[in-house]
Amino acid sequence: MRGESVDLPVEIPGSAPLTTRLHSLLQQPAAAQEEAQTARGWVDLAYEAAYGERYAAAAEAAERGLKAPGSQDVENRLMLLRLLSGVHEMRGASAIAAPYLEERVALLRQLGRTRQAEVEAQLGTMLLREPDRVEAEILRRMAEELDDGTGPSVHRADVLSSLAVRSLHDDGPDAALPLITEACEILEALGRPQALAGARMFLAHAQLLSDDSEAAMATANQVLSAPANRAVRGAMAMLRATVHHQADRPTEAVADAMTSVELYSACGVRKGAASAAALLAGITASLSEADTSVLAWRVAVQQAELGEFSESRLLSLALGQQLLDMEQYAEAEKVLEALSLRLAGGDSDFSTRGRALMGLGHAVTQQKRPLEAMSHWEEAATQFISAEEVDEAARAHLAAGALAASLDRVDAARKHYERGLSLADQGEDTDPLMLLQALHSLGHLLCRHEEESGLDYLDRAMGIVDEHGTDWQRADITDTRARSLTALGRGTEAVAAALEAADMFAGSGDEEAAADAEIFAATVLLQMNQPQEAETLFRMAAESREISDPLLATSLEGRAEALTALGKHDVAAGLTADLEALRAQLASEEDLPHSE
To answer: Model's pTM, two decimal places?
Structure first.
């Protein structure tokens, strides 16, 4: 609601690179206390503070506006009095709001705007906040009464605007649209640009909510092409960014989101700035601009923390996840550890802390500190249980179990797998794929350590695959069964299962896994002193399937060993030479720099 005031800047230059602009916000997130030179300037500052839920600052700005040059202009004074009564009402201080409302009504009467004064006196604070359902009926009757053929009136526009707020809440955007559209038409006809900017902002959001993005964009453009304060302009830039994003126009979405962040930040609308920065972070991440995305997440977190909003927790979590995705594990650890510590104890957000601990576990695992990761994941499971997120708790235990198994900490792995299975197996509420993972993991672990009960878990896992899984998953469990049978000393059954798995993998289009299963079967045959059959399988795996060089090396090594056992030393020597050449090639490839 800027009018002719030029006290405050309404735009921030946007020609610099995104990273420069984001760095600038991080270095100077809070603007210095701004001063206005006129009453109109203080109107803008008061509105912006109120929009940013900084009600004490809004009240102070409006009070100063009443003493500033231009305060005797009746329109300025009326706006300031409405702002003061509205701000105090939003703070729950109705007794403080009342005198300002009374002064405004008295001024309206002095100006001869008797009907408007009567309406505001009768409706009181209904025009200053979202009315309840009973008040909405009163407003509806008043709107009908004011539709008396005498022409447009600002008080009818006020009533329609308040009614639209309630209609949006109760009946959705389609019910609110006719009301706010008419209010905009009235304010435009009466030449009230300040009130029109706010009404059109509401209209644009209602149009977006009703899935009419084209109309919402047109309305936003109307607002931005007319006088409006930074809070309103920031909101419209955010709406434009949202529409562009939904329409898959990322370049335009990024530009508008950045503008919104800057405008909102400049006028202290912290929640808006955080939301716009989060949108910017998501879009730039999708464009593979990871560094820009991280900066945007940092701005989002900083703005939310400045506003002391609880959303800062989720934004910190998103920042940590982005850093993990970028493989910046040390930075991710700092962010996630700080978040976890902040949420520790008391009435914390158990769910968010659980997720922070899961991410923290991944960060320290990548930094080769697996025991810390296991501890973090165990604590994450406890947090998820407190948040009544049983599935997430099960996943945390399964992750800890897999890590323990990789470290050959059998007892710890078994404890975590069994706990994960217990949590995953929730009857009707069970996530079948998670239950499958739990059964598969525990069954394999037990069999590897010569406990035949592991086969029962694998059998149950196969039952779940039959009902909910895929052909590839069936092949995978069959392959695990083959390896488990080997650990249990049942070689003949293991070979049969491995060959069955190979056929299944091939049927699923996974030639590499099929060859790996055949090579495993060949290895077992070799161990069972059946080199002829083993050599045939090693050769078939290499010659009949398209496989990777590392797997080809494994095949060559096994085949050479089988041929040696058969006394075919010359052929074995030739294969060994081929194997050494292939290993040298693989080693040289590992030494080459990897392109991004």
So the answer is: 0.78
